[in-house]
Amino acid sequence: MPTQAKSERLMNLVICLLVSRTYVPKARIRQIVGGYGDQADEAFERMFERDKEELRELGIPIETGSNDPYGDEEPGYRIKRQDFELPEIRLEPDEAAVIGLAARVWQHASLAEATSRAVLKLRAAGVETDTGALAAVEPRVAVEEPAFWPLWEAVRDRRPVAFDHRKQPGDATLRRHIQPWSVLSWHGRWYVVGYDVDRGAPRLFRLSRIVGDVVTTGDAGAYDVPSAREIRDAADALAPPRQTNLARIRVRRDSGYGLRRRAAAEQRAADEWDMLTVPFADGGVLADEVAGYGADAVLLEPEDVRKRVVARLRSVIGESA
Amino acid sequence: MTRRPGGAQEQVSRLLSLLPYLLSHPNTRLADVAEIFRVSEQQILRDLNVLWFSGLPGLAMGDYIEVDMESAEGEGVINVSNADYLARPLRLGTDEALALVVALRTLAAMPGTYDRGAVDRAAAKLERAAGAAAERAAAVRVEVDGDAVADVAATVRRALDEKRRLHLSYWVPGRDERTERDVDPMRLALADGRLYLEGWCRRAESVRLFRLDRVAAISVLDVAAQVPPQARSRDLGAGIFQPSPDDELVTLELGPAGRWVADYYPCETVEEIGERELRIRLRVADPRWVRRLALRLGGTGRITDPPELVAAAVADARAALEAYEGTASAASAGSDVRSQPMAGG
Prior knowledge:
A: SH3 type barrels; 4 domains; 11 helices; 15 strands; elongated; B: 4 domains; disordered C terminus
């Protein structure tokens, strides 16, 4: 059973390096950790290097060093307990319950696995993550864009990347070189915000419009990330713009609810009509919306937006505006 | 990090949590451990077999981890000892800490749904335990419009906890209607960055999803919720908007400025026609919705099939234009407010 033998060897190596107070020289490891002793020199070297690498990938901090920095002794290895162990963590039942719930949030294979492993570590440390009381709540964060994982890693490691991106569906793609600062989700869509090296300014890109692979173009820690405030400002394009204008819209009773729920004022007007005062940011967007209500909403002011509504309605019946 | 499933690396990763778990939980049932670690009982037995051959360097008598294999294989009860040096699990890895902290912050952005205090305390303790691994957690954010619906969410949560019926005043944008309905709540869900109530709607007599930001008024009724046994939760992974094959198939042609429609609504087919124009076909449950869409699109897109809907959209536009003609003089007689800035805005 090759897996069994290798798992035993890795476990015994971890224990050996963890219980030793001093660096354990390689030759000594070869003697006392089962599975190495019967290997030829070269095979042992390869096996030991690979084992170390696999343990480090798991997050096990294997240190290299020498017990006698002035001697010419061969360097050795150890695992410092305080770097290895999960620190003490005590959670109240309500705190543990929300952590159990947090573990169900990610609908993405690698992240779901990562959270499951984290929760198992917490359970092994005595945290009981019972989510029974929260069973009726289901928070899901979906990630379907293939560009997500490489960008998560790039943001995590501060590593510059390049990718092909389409501004609008149907547009030609453009090669972009970015220092990613943050990945964020807005109404279920993922974006990356970062410094666009070619344009010399912060930019925001929608992940679903990235075509092909995201490739790394530099080392980890290659750039500094600005303050949270600056990142937020760069991502501001996602937030609804400030509504600094006012429109007066006549709306038929029992209709126009989309306008009513953000109206600054609502008055009864004649007959079957109510008069709304609606704040808005962009006249074109408001004209689209009001046109959608057909004869149930009539925008009275401002005049320029009113003209745009009328133009839209005329195009529907085939008249040019 | 990608681990070959079933490989030694994956097994060691699990063992480093399994061992401290078993040391602190004597007489644990094999079936329970398999469930917690989400592997088969056979796999747990194989894991125990690895531990059985592990121990202090040199592996002399008394150095081995003690595993009662007989009791594990026989009665299905696990006891492990003589491994105090691995009594604590490995610290959290960067991805583990980040994924969990970002998930917690997402929960914190849903006020009313959870006890915010518990979420904040849990996140703080977790970040402290994770140390440097959690440092970059702020770099990943899930924006949730939670604040605006906090009161509605809290009311839904109370009804769920008390298993009582809700009354909703709910806006249906596709039909521009405000509807009154009694709903027996099933769950509160976050999907696509928005909060939803899923429940048995007594008016529709079926399971419905209600977006909380479209709830105009909500109250908990003094009636016990009765979710019928045939009520099934929807799989939200398939998307919130799930057209039915019975819905009418509508064809639209979109100009360059109307292409967003293909991006926004799930289409049955999308084809490029001419210079940056699209022809799309989508399933429409309520024709009023697509008629309104046609008015919104104006010159940037139009319905081309079925003919009744083409005619209906034109009739809608004519009726609307008449309404505008009726008010034209009134508006031009009044003061011409051209995008007047709001005071203090």
